[in-house]
């Protein structure tokens, strides 16, 4: 494995932000780190990238402790932070030259790399424009470009598509996928969009309240709910007595309501149609459709954390 976190813990005064996290990445993998706000993801990433030391535990890169010798990891690590880290009064090209020199690149090698990155992130035609005039999506793409200047083996991307338009978001996702496939770049990716994780990631860690609460491939994670069905119910009008009746049913494990769409989780062996029709008749509720679905990553996340990913 290229990187491993072993029993990582971080204590801030009275608060334990990260509590005994274990995770690993194999070379060439894209691994997702998911969790609601406050789960400890950013603190974990900060420790892995050597920005802050852990209270206890270790980070190992190619079987060597990063705490004792961070230089080897830092040389091959790229980090795309959640917050835009650019100089807005400089152009895209000037930003890349500045950060390229920070990576100790120079001369024709730096010029070649800047041109290559501008092409990769689709900003060649806007390279001389000031960053302060860029859209959110263009800034995000440039933010990623900065992290790629020194051709990192391993890149950490902390919610790189927050607050941007769908076109820029798709561009970024396709770029990450291409870098992984063509250059075997290893990626640790956090996101608030489950569809991004579905598209990109080979394996997933789900984190909540400072701890890893589930891990595995996408299919392994979904199998957590293999004994349950997700049932989507559309109603003509939402009646509170019907919702209350669903909550009161002991065999229903979760009830969520969004407009006229109600989603419940039930054991597979339950005759859900018979139960729903009886409850609807009892509460004078008109059902327009009932559909049983295969559990999704979002369903598992809700089941494990009690919250949606974007909460």
What count of domains describes the coordinates? 2
If you consult CATH, what is the topology of the largest domain?
A: Rossmann fold
Overall helicity: 25-40%
Task: Return Rg in Å.
Answer: 23 Å
What is the highest CATH level, the class of the largest domain? Alpha Beta
Q: Give the helix/strand class.
A: alpha/beta
**Major sheet strand order:** 6-7-8-3-9-10
User: Could you tell me the number of beta strands?
Assistant: 14
Assigned CATH architecture of the largest domain: 3-Layer(aba) Sandwich
Structural shape: elongated
Count of discrete alpha- or pi-helical segments spanning 4 or more residues: 11
The N- to C-terminal Cα distance equals: 33 Å
CATH H-level homologous superfamily name of the largest domain: P-loop containing nucleotide triphosphate hydrolases
Main β-sheet: number of strands, strand sense, barrel status?
A: 6 strands, mixed
Instruction: Give helix and strand order, one letter per element, not per position.
Output: EEEHEEHEHHHEHEHEEHEHEEHEH
- Portion in beta strands: 25-35%
Mean pLDDT, all residues? 90
InterPro entries: AAA+_ATPase, ABC_transporter-like_ATP-bd, ABC_transporter-like_CS, P-loop_NTPase
Keywords: ATP-binding, Nucleotide-binding
Pfam family, one: ABC_tran
Protein name: Antibiotic ABC transporter ATP-binding protein
